[in-house]
Design brief:
It contains 13 helices and eight strands. The chain has 352 residues and is of the alpha/beta class. The chain folds into two domains: 145 residues, Rossmann fold (3-Layer(aba) Sandwich); 186 residues, Up-down Bundle (Dehydroquinate synthase-like, alpha domain). Strands 1-8-5-4-2-3 form a six-stranded parallel β-sheet, with helices on both faces. Strands 6-7 form a two-stranded antiparallel sheet. α5 packs parallel to α7. The model has no long low-confidence stretch (mean pLDDT 96). The structure holds nicotinamide-adenine-dinucleotide. Nicotinamide-adenine-dinucleotide (NAD) binds next to α4, β6 and α9.
Length: 352
C-alpha cells in the first residue's frame, strides 16, 4: 500500500472535564480579554445570565437571541450590542445555533471566541459557518471563525433532553461516517472518526436509560468533539449536502434531519465505499446502512422524513436542488437515485 496524505491539526485550545466551565474566567484572562459578551439562545437565557454573573467584572453583558441557521439580522444586532458594550471577546454557551452566532460575530469583528458546547453538533471545532439571509442559507469556511478556546463540560449536558441527545449524537456520527470516505481523509481523521463513533455508540443507549449518567455524558461529549473535529478537517459529501438542502430550503430541524437521513445516505454510499465504511459495520453491526438504522431505532430516533412535515412533492424539489451543483461523492449520483433515496427516508423504511 502506498500511503500518501496531508494533515493539518487545529490551533484551537480544547479543555475537557467535569466542572471545566467553572474556570471560564481563567480562559477569558488567558486569551488577554476582560470584557466578555455571553451568548445564548432565549431558551438558555438563564444559564447565560448565571454564567455572566459568575464572571463578575470579566463580563459586560449577555445577548440571548441566538437563532438556528444564524440569520444575518440577528448577527448584526449582536455585533451592535458587542460594540456598544465594548466587548473584547464572546463566550458562547449552547448548541450549534449559539456557536454559529459567535462565529458570525468573529467573522465581522475578529473578536476571540470561547465556546462552551451543550449539544453534540460539533460546530465549535470547525471553521465552517452557515448563515441565512432572505431565506437562503450559504456556507463558508474561514480560519477567522474558528473558536480559540472550547470548554467541554459534560455536567452542562446532563439536562440535554433525551430526544435531543439522540438526534444530536446521530448528527455527530454523520460527520464521522462521511469523514471515512472523504476524498481528503487521512489516517488521523479516520482514527478520530472511528473513535468518535464508537464513543457515541456506547454512550447513547446509556443516556437514553439514565440521562444523568455522568460517565456516559462525558463519553458522548468526547465522541462529539472527535466527530466535530473531522467535520472541520475533511470534505463532506452526499449526506451533508442533502441535510443542508432539507434544512435550508424546507426548514426541517437540523439534528432530526441528520438522524433520519444518516442510514439512507450511508447505505447508498456503502455500495461504492464499502472498504472505507467497514468500521461503521463493525461498530453498529450488519451493513453500514442497516447497522445505523437499527441503532437509530434502538435509541428512539425519529426515522421518517414524513414525520418532519415534508410532503412527497417536496422530495421532487429536494432531489433537484441537491443534485444541482456537482460535488465529490464516492457513488455517482443523479436526480432519480437521490429521489429514490429520499422516498425511502420519507417512508422510514430499512435501507439496503
Ligand atoms: P441548537 O443549538 O439550535 O439547540 C436547540 C435548542 O436546544 C436550543 O433552544 C438550545 O438553547 C437548546 N439546548 C442546547 N443545549 C441544551 C441543553 N444542554 N439543555 C437544554 N437545552 C439545550 O441545536 P444544534 O443541533 O446544537 O445546532 C444546530 C445548528 O448548528 C444549525 O444551525 C446547524 O446548521 C449548526 N451547525 C453548524 C456546524 C458547523 O460546523 N458550522 C456544525 C453542526 C451544526
Amino acid at each position: 500500500m502506498s500511503l500518501s496524505f496531508t494533515y493539518q491539526g487545529s490551533p484551537a485550545q480544547i479543555v475537557f472535564g467535569s466542572g471545566a466551565s467553572k474556570r471560564v474566567g481563567e480562559w477569558v484572562e488567558k486569551i488577554g480579554a476582560s470584557r466578555a459578551l455571553v451568548l445564548t439562545t432565549s431558551h438558555q437565557k438563564a444559564e447565560g445570565e448565571a454564567l455572566a454573573a459568575s464572571l463578575g467584572k470579566l463580563a459586560v453583558g449577555t445577548y440571548a437571541d441566538a437563532t438556528m441557521h444564524t440569520p444575518v439580522d440577528v448577527t448584526e444586532e449582536a455585533v451592535a450590542r458587542a460594540t456598544e458594550l465594548g466587548a473584547d471577546c464572546v463566550v458562547a454557551l449552547g448548541g450549534g445555533s449559539t456557536t454559529g452566532l459567535g462565529k458570525a460575530i468573529a467573522l465581522r469583528t475578529d473578536l476571540p471566541q470561547i465556546v462552551i458546547p451543550t449539544t453534540y453538533a460539533g460546530s465549535e471545532v470547525t471553521s465552517i459557518l452557515g448563515q441565512t439571509e432572505n431565506g437562503e442559507k450559504t456556507t463558508l469556511r474561514s480560519p477567522r471563525v474558528l473558536p480559540e478556546v472550547v470548554i467541554y463540560d459534560p455536567d452542562l449536558t446532563l439536562g440535554l433532553p433525551v430526544a435531543m441527545s439522540v438526534t444530536s449524537g446521530l448528527n455527530a456520527i454523520a460527520h464521522a461516517a462521511e469523514a471515512l470516505y472523504a476524498p481528503d481523509a487521512n489516517p488521523i481523521t479516520s482514527l478520530m472518526a472511528i473513535e468518535g463513533m464508537r464513543a457515541l455508540k456506547e454512550a447513547l443507549p446509556v443516556i437514553v436509560a439514565t440521562p444523568t449518567d455522568g460517565d456516559a455524558r462525558a463519553k458522548a461529549l468526547y465522541g462529539a468533539w472527535l466527530c466535530g473535529t473531522v467535520l472541520g478537517q475533511v470534505a463532506m459529501s452526499l449526506h451533508h449536502k442533502i441535510c443542508h438542502t432539507l434544512g435550508g430550503s424546507f426548514d426541517t430541524p437540523h439534528a432530526e434531519t441528520h438522524a433520519i437521513m444518516l442510514p439512507h445516505t450511508i447505505g447508498f454510499n456503502a455500495e461504492a465505499a464499502g472498504d472505507a465504511l467497514a468500521p461503521v459495520g463493525e461498530i453498529f453491526g450488519g451493513t453500514p446502512g442497516q447497522g445505523l438504522y437499527e441503532f437509530a431505532k434502538s435509541v428512539g430516533s425519529p426515522l421518517a422524513l414524513k414525520d418532519l412535515g415534508l410532503t412527497e412533492a417536496d422530495l421532487d424539489r429536494a432531489a433537484e436542488i441537491a443534485t444541482r451543483n456537482p460535488y465529490a461523492n464516492p457513488r455517482p449520483i443523479d436526480q432519480a437515485s437521490i429521489r429514490a433515496l429520499l422516498q425511502d427516508a420519507w417512508e422510514g423504511s430499512r435501507p439496503p
